[in-house]
Amino acid sequence: MSRRTLKLGAVLLGVGGPGQHGTWLDPGIPADASVDIRWYIARARQAEAAKFDLVFIVDSQFITENSPNHYLSRLEPLTLLSAVAVHTSNIGLVGTITTSYNEPFNVARRLSSLDHISSGRAGWNVVTSGDAGTAGNYSRDEHYDYATRYGRALEHIRVAQGLWDSYESDAFPRDKESGVFFDATKQHRLDHKGEYFSVVGPLNLERSPQGQPVIFQAGDSEEGRDLGATVGEVIFTHAATLAQARAFRTEMRERAAAKGRDPETVLTLPGIHVVIAGTDDAARAKEDALLGTKSFDRALKELGRPFGWHDFTQHDLDAPFPDIGDAGQRSFRTQANAIKKLARDNDFTLRQVVEHLTGSARSPFVGSPETVADTIQYWFDEGGFDGINITVNAPAEFALFTDRVLPILRERGVVRSEYESTTLRGNLGLPVPENRHTAARLSVPAS
Fold this sequence. Notes:
The chain is an alpha/beta fold. The protein has helices at residues 37-49, 69-72, 77-85, 104-117, 146-164, 222-231, 242-258, 280-291, 296-302, 333-346, 350-359, 369-381, 395-411, 424-428, 436-443; strands at 7-12, 54-57, 92-98, 122-127, 192-193, 198-199, 214-217, 234-237, 267-272, 274-276, 365-367, 387-392. It is built from 15 helices and twelve strands.
């Protein structure tokens, strides 16, 4: 096996996320998959059998009648992953939690609990909430602006990391012979007072087997990239071409290095869409059929999400793309601005924007098992990514990847044959964070 191996993530989207309008009709997918814990457990075990590094649960806390099917009714991530944890042994468990509408102490406690339940396999996908409507569910009149969202996010993460250091690793001798349960000198208050949070601590949970949960991050704005470079250990992203993927990975590693971090400890895992069939032609025909299941009307309505759920159905489809002012500036601003630029640069009508976005969903990872394996390996070898996230819906389709593509990559040494560790950090090749209090104590010269 090569020293650098491809990392693998499985995104569990039940009855279908954005653009997957007909996914739930597949006979291999239960119509209630998004709320069926048995489905999640089965998919996680399927991924674990294939030696995946992690399963990933996306989340948001605001919906409309036009939200993707999976978003309309789905389980809360950490509750879900705690159930999955007791039915798996090695695979990482990564859940999305917003820093905008949670307190650091609760987040630190919940994630650390998952880390203990799973024996060190927890990961936190940090988001600041792109759906501006979330504010209305948390007693706010409007969502935070970008500067506040990301200022809160960085402080939130730093507080959580401080709380995870509340206990040194040897704080609990639990020695029944001597009657010593814990060493009080190894417990530490946080006493944090910052711009957004004030937290005394300590956390009422000891250090986990992997030290701290792994920090994942996916923001593509300037603020999001800066946050990822500052604290992100795994960066989720999307890239349409190898050039884009390589440029993003290079940028994030350079940003991290400029902040004094080891760039080798910042992994980039884009989401990719694979379509596999016996031949390349058959796979392309299969992709055409999948694209044909997309509904123009649903796509038109979903277009509103990055713009704060602006209602595009009120506009003339064949008129120039409408001027909707600053809609989206407190939602998914980067995505909204990219769509407006697309329309402006190409003089697209609203209809053409929707058709372009729907048609541009074609993937470079389409073909026979050999072709898909070759493409993944080429992007990996050329520095496009450190790993990939595969969306999992129909078990049979996922099996085409695990049973047909991965054996080829495994034979070439691109992916692991066995797990190296029982912790998420261990399998990702990430270091265990040193407890700050242990480090400070050991740095004092003996008298």
